[in-house]
Amino acid sequence: MLPPTPAISEEKHPRVLEPLMLVVLITVSILGSVVGIQMIVTLGISANTSIIGALIAIIISRIPVSLLKRFRSVHRQNQVQTAISSATFGAANSLFIPIGVPFAMGRPELIMPMLIGATLAMFLDGVMLYRMFGSKVFPASGTWPAGVATAESIIAGDQGGKKAMMLGGGLLVGVLGSMLHIPMSALGVAFIGNMWALLMFGIGLLIRGYATPVLGMDINKLFIPHGIMIGAGIVALVQVSASVMKNEGKHAVVEEDRKIVSVLGQGFVAFLLVSLIAALVAGLATEMSLPMFLGFLLFAAFAAYVHELIVGIAAMHAGWFPAFAVALITLVIGILIGFPPAALAILVGLSASTGPAFADMGYDLKTGYLLRGEGRDPELEREGRRQQLIAGMIGFAVSALCVLLVYDNFFARNLFPPVGKVYAVTIAAGVSKEIAMNLLIWAIPGALLQWVGGARRQLGVLMATGLLINVPAAGWAVLAGLLLRLFIVRRYKDAGETVCSTMAAGFIAGDALYNFFKPIFTSK
User: Fold this and answer.
1) Strand (E) positions, 352-505?
2) CA 490, CA 472: separation in Å to the nearest integer?
3) For residue 317, which of 181, 440, 459, 204 has the smallest C-alpha distance?
4) Which residue has the higher pLDDT, 69 or 480?
């Protein structure tokens, strides 16, 4: 997809723990954490700061100091973007949202247990994706749109020329389109993703957006999207299991399958331990009978595990992931089971803490994979991934420390993520039998759609993802993007896909830049 980048296979891959690099990574991680927390409590969303991190590294490399010239390496720039994006998603999505739930419930004694559990889950999230990236479940060849955009931006900054001009033009269009409230990320994703999956995603967005004004029904209040996601998610889990258990005869394939089975098994056990630690610190063992406590541990681990996989699949194909909504599904099922309020708070918090860090690590590793030549040098690829994992862990560690230091100040001013209030109200209100029946009924078409599409297209999961997101303009952007993509590919023949990927990177980068700086210009 991308042209070869300057190879450094003859040299050592740049090390994250070099003193200067470590200082830069900690600094940008603090910046990413602060931005993420501020945005999640004021806007309810967090920004993808990968491209911001890459731009910071490029700017540093242009400072006329010999020591800083080493940042002209695309691999060092990649490490910087990995750290800042990990810190942003970690602080905002993986940590601040979970601890906001007990605060919104008026249960401050649960905040620290939730922070401990969410922090452990966040680190586990990153490690799980690192170990699964490049497998049949989460292939390096997958779309991972934000990762492609960041890689294209870094390469354009390194090489210049026509590619840089085309990317710059796309970036400008991305910023202008975002200013006009056009979802440019959705438009960009349509240029590079799986067309069938994105078609379902776009249709889902349009159905959600127009069901109320056209049909007079709020499908979200009826929990129709949630039911479809439950059915699609169950089938997706079965498809993942079948994929890794399938013996195709070749030794290398069999070994890979065994490795993924091992990773999945170890991941479930690890989530079980995280759930146990959070539950014990929260004192849940005294609030439930032993059978219910054990059932809670198993369900919490399974829910966090499935949430991670579903969010990862949606992020890989569409670049959008309904982490908040899928966590709500977990909460609704937990209410139907009959877990007490404190347990429900820990349950939804643990579920919400998984997924975003998992997806972001996928984006970051996709960037690195493209910058390192798409696996042409296996040794370089292995070492590069390992260094990116360390950079991501630094970002996560800084985000956890930042959240620990500032959450009291934010909560004292009654500032917390809006979705936390949604979870708290849901726990207080409970779930009716009608909702339970809707979940069961609509799980059937979700399961059928996912089964028909197969593991490669993920039709059910992507349809449900669209139905869970109330941004109808994004649906039109996806459909328009798919049509434009077909036109460009036919018009430019062999060069069509390269043109599409470069334009997509510009649109996504422009949207990310606009949303990053938007709070500065819109704040009073």
Assistant:
1) none
2) 28
3) 459
4) 480
Mean pLDDT across 281-286: 88
In 3D, which of 507, 460, 437 has the Cα closest to residue 190? 507
Cα Rg, the chain, nearest whole Å: 22
What pLDDT shows up at residue 253?
A: 55
Within 10 angstroms of residue 359's Cβ, the number of other Cβ atoms is 28
Q: Which residues contact 338 (CB under 8 A, 6 or more apart)?
A: 292
Reply yes or no on whether the pLDDT at 66 is more than 60: yes
The 8-class DSSP code of residue 45 comes to -
What digits encode the pLDDT tens for the residues 113-156? 999 999 999 999 999 999 999 888 899 988 898 898 889 888 88
Q: Return d(Cα 435, Cα 329) in angstroms, integer.
A: 11
- The reported pLDDT for the residue numbered 405 is 95
What tokens does 314 get? 């949606």
Q: Which amino acid is at 331?
A: L
Rounded distance between C-alpha atoms, residue 309 and residue 285, angstroms: 28
Task: Specify the residue for token string 């990927």.
Answer: 501
Which pTM was predicted? Answer: 0.84
Count how many Cα atoms sit within 13 Å of the Cα of residue 224 in the half-sphere of its side chain.
16
In one letter, which amino acid is 1? M
